[in-house]
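User: Sequence in, structure out. Go.
Assistant: Echoing your sequence, followed by the structure tokens.
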Amino acid sequence: MSRRDWTMRRTVALASVVFICAGAACAADVTLKLGHVANEDNSWHKAALKFAQEVKTLTRGQVEVKVFANEALGKEMDLINGMQLGSADMTLTGESLQNWAPKAALLAIPYAFKSLAEVDKAVTGPLGQEIKQEVIERAKVIPLAYFARGPRNLTSRTPIRSVDDVKGLKMRVPNVPVFMQFWRSVGAQPTPMAFGEVFTALQTGVVEAQENPLALVKSARFFEVQKYVNRTEHVRSWIYLAMGEKSFNQLTADQKTAVQEAAQRAQAYERSLMLADEQKLEAELKAKGMVFVETDPSGFAKKAREAVLAAAKAELKPVIAKLYAN
């Protein structure tokens, strides 16, 4: 074999190796698992998929995000614990973080925010920065982006027109102290329960009611076991697309930047989905047989202020009082 032929064959062989390696590079160097409570129809899940797509693009395939809906990786509290230990990577979470970072309670103060604009102002302003910093320091969880939520409404088997109608009502609430305080203050019997257990509890009569944004009412098919949507609109809040500090710190500097940029893109995408959903959710739920009830919020709001301020930690009372004064 001539030297020229040998050189040509070597070049072809090297090119093949490079091609194979390039193909192998499609396999991610880092795989992150993102679990959440919503189902595949929810805007949170769609935004999570958008985040995964953007991460893959921005890292050129070095980082892959696998998204798991319907609590497939575990309940919200379990995921937060896992993120702290390093056995879980990411989730969508909000007021539940107050179990570690007290200021996260400010995400879900009943009747604190009257509009989406007020929510945006809070989360992007000094208050939001304080909450975010405490979540990082105390919960060891890094909020990468936020998704605003539609207002929480009370669904039930019987119509609720005033605060007096909830006395003795057995209802599910998330494992969030401020929610428990609020509903007890208006005479209800709140029971903390994981989201994945709510449908069966409503179906079997373990609880008679629950409260959530309309998007979750629809995606969880609560219309099959609840008749009424009572317009309490008692909480306007947000959740975080969050990553465990341990998982985040395992990324390179470039990968961290890419993940943060992907989160911002997912945030913008989720907002467009959320706004479109809010316009059609009521019609869709009515088509499923739900009846919307106009509920007088004044009695609920008064009780909320009294209960939340009475039970709030000393460090939070001035902030909550200011929110209510606005």
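User: And one key feature?
Assistant: The longest strand covers residues 141-148.
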